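Below: protein 1.
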Amino acid sequence: MNESDGKAVQSDALVLFGITGDLAYKMIFPALYAMAKRGALRFPVIGVALQTWSLGQLYERVKDSLQQAGGIDDQKAFDQLLALLRYVSGDYSNPDTFTALKKELGDARHPAHYLAIPPSLFETVIQGLGAAGVAQGARVIVEKPFGRDLDSALDLNHIAHSVFPEDAIFRIDHFLAKEAIMNIHYFRFANSFLEPIWNRNYVASVQITLAENFGVENRGAFYETVGCLRDVVENHLFQEVALIAMEPPVSEDFDAVQTEKVKVFQSMRPLQPEDLVRGQYTGYQEEPGVAKDSDVETFCALRLFIDSWRWEGVPWFLRSGKNLPQTGNEVLVRLKPPPQKLFEDSPLTFDRANYVRFQLSPRSTIALAARVKSKGKQFVGVQDELSMIEEECGERLPYERLLEDAMSGDRMIFTREDNVEAAWAVVDPVLKNHPPALPYPRGSWGPKEADALIAKYGGWHNPALNPSSKDRQPAGVEQGTPPTVKEVLGTD
């Protein structure tokens, strides 16, 4: 896929396996439409699926998707998207399907094959592409989960490499395409003030919460095959850990960044049952497609350690779940309290110490918490936040960025083979040998056992939708509206 001068070749067609599925409907169609609005959609989009649809039926599916996603406000872009659509109907296990695809590709020599299909079909499709001769000079884009455990990830990598070289394999973790996630990487290494304290000497603990206030939403059959640990912790939350914990890469090159990330995963202690709390919201077993005796977790909290020079002894706490009180994703880096109680109100406990907070959703904010003196003679004060950055309008959709980067051959926000395998190695010990899923009420923060996991480190920080509300702040932080940079500096 690379030209002699080292520049990546632009893909000249997008083949979308699973075009009639849920992922295409919710994510990919809106992303393609957004690309068309910006003039970035200039290649045919060939859908492949089992259903015997006409092009008219596919057009209606796309139209309905866009209307659900916010409406069609650019008729010219919409017409262009429809004009670029093609459709091939057939069974993925039938060679005739790939023969028809090859014919539909026509003169395209560098297609990108997007596997928006269940992982159980990856091998069938990849081998079908190779046998039909449409993998030469092509790329393959693979949706998560990339395997179900370490062994299956190794097998899947072997299968993919039997047809595609590593630099033609694009493994998607759509969290990496979010502006707020990319900003963690930039914020850490574009500034110098964090580095002196970003280590075991000053950091008491790190916690990450990814909360959803909804359930499995008619996707029970799918969720039964993954569960929370596989669905979001091993990939999404581990990628956030890597960005917070990694050493500075030698350059912004893809391989340099991936090498530092994989060092983080390789330094993680493999999880043990006592590090894990699993939960299941009440009523999950009544969801369509869910077994009546299901032990699949819809909530997961875990404690892990990174045995590296920088992070030795610092506990990391990860938590995610469905049907929690609200939807949000936050990282809280708690610093150690001052070594001496110089002032009457000096914090000596973890829950009142300074922290750095990254809110990744629903808004994008980076905040520093520090104590400032209150007016008066006494040396007492309050701890408040200095808000550093907030999300701006005009951000590209994650799948829009992923598609555009994959088509151009930019691998920066994708994951490398050893990255995936090292992450699976951490969770592999508890995928089968784990405690039972404990029931928790809908709208709660999960089983109480998850609170015990982190109790001596100040407890969980519960993100809130309202960034100025008291319950946004960790326990022990006084009420107050966070000042902005402009207020602190006195600038206009």
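Below: protein 2.
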Amino acid sequence: MSGIVLSASVRQNLLSLQSTAALLATTQNDLATGNKVNSALDNPTEFFTAQGLNNRASDISNLLDGIGNGVQVLQAANTGITSLQSLIANAQSIANQVLQAPTGYSTKSSVTATAIPGATANNLLGPSTAATVTGGAITGAAATTTKLSALGTPITSADSLTIDGKTISFTNSGGNTVTSAGGALDLTNATVGDLLAAVDTITGAASGSSTLNATKLVLSTGTASPLVIGGAAGTLTALGLTAGTTALTPPAISGKTLQIAATGNGTATNVTFGTGAGQVSTLNQLNTALAANNLQAGIDTTGAITITTTNNAASSTIGAFTGSTATQFSSLTAAAPVADPNSQAIRASLVTQYNQVLQNINTTAQDSSFNGINLLNGDTLNLTFDETGASKLAIAGVTFNDAGLGLSSLTTGTDFVDSNSANAVLAQLTQASTTLRTAASSLGSNLSIVEIRQDFNKNLINVLQTGASNLTVADPNQEAANSQALSTRQSIAVSALALANQSQQSVLQLLR
């Protein structure tokens, strides 16, 4: 074979044909596999780069299952919280029924104090005692019929007497003309009795309030106002009086204190009776002071005040009475309330219903799991978002059974017996509802994060795979055009080779 000599043109055409055949084979392989880079021999850089991208896409794709399960774990917990909220609302409805049910006691604890004469709802203190002044002995004043001009020190027209700032003058004629604004007494006929009647007229006291006690004037204002005496010194001496102001005597209860120990879960009562700042003088004021201790007061027509527990503390006995009001409240002892069997039976039924709701809270929390993870039973959800393990999220679970929500089973005869006990349960349920809302918000936030990362990973996988394809995937249109061009080129090369062989064929003909 080494002795065979081909012409240059034949050799050139053979090489061209071989090259075309090789290119055509490569193009056909690209069309068959769909890739322009099928091995590192085709293009090492693009091959290994694409392989790295595809490997990363595969690793991230393997994480999607775990992320998807994490989404379902969060969805299960969220579903559980929604159900727990409904159960809490059911429990609140039961507790509210207690508030609407009849009072559980036919007779509540109460005490009635000693009556305060003259006391009313607008004046618990009763009326003040009249301001009264007893003067000194008057010479010659043997009786109320004694004339003023006949006293040991006779009254003259030059004298005058002032009562509560209103003047009584004395004249020798004109008759007695004293009114509530003052006036004059006629010395020709005015007696001690006329003077006493004039004082009562000016002060507004009932007729006969001011009297003569032996030889002493006793002046009184009833309950209208303090008694103010003034006038000329001689006149006061003649009548045995002294200038000055005498105040009304306050009621016996004024200034006294009332203390009641805490009733139920109330605040101990400590009030002072009187009309001063912070003191109590009306029924409304007393009830305001008693409200914090679950008590209320009323007053009857005799002036007797009765204090009773409110519905909030119907099951409680009023706390011990102390204080300085010895004649009204001190040392009183309240009787215990008397339970109403029918009402208590209703309340006992509500206790049973409430406890059943708590049992369902426990089972709902226990059942809120997915794939063995329960975020409502203290489990923790651990998620990995990237192939290196650097991007992670740990979602700590909570324990949302009755104890975890701050709730506990109720006891018949102890709980729901009055409004206070129902309100205490309602306060716990309100806090539990707030806890659930907070947890739901946290779960929602975490679910949003996980879903965002889930979508991100899906899109990233697409980006990586697209990048790898851009490096290795063949363009069908381009490869088809190449194949067609190479086929044409191959046909031309075959024809060229045939032409190059014609000269050798001519020599062969000569040899024949």
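The chain has three domains: 62-102+343-462, 105-123+252-339, 132-246.
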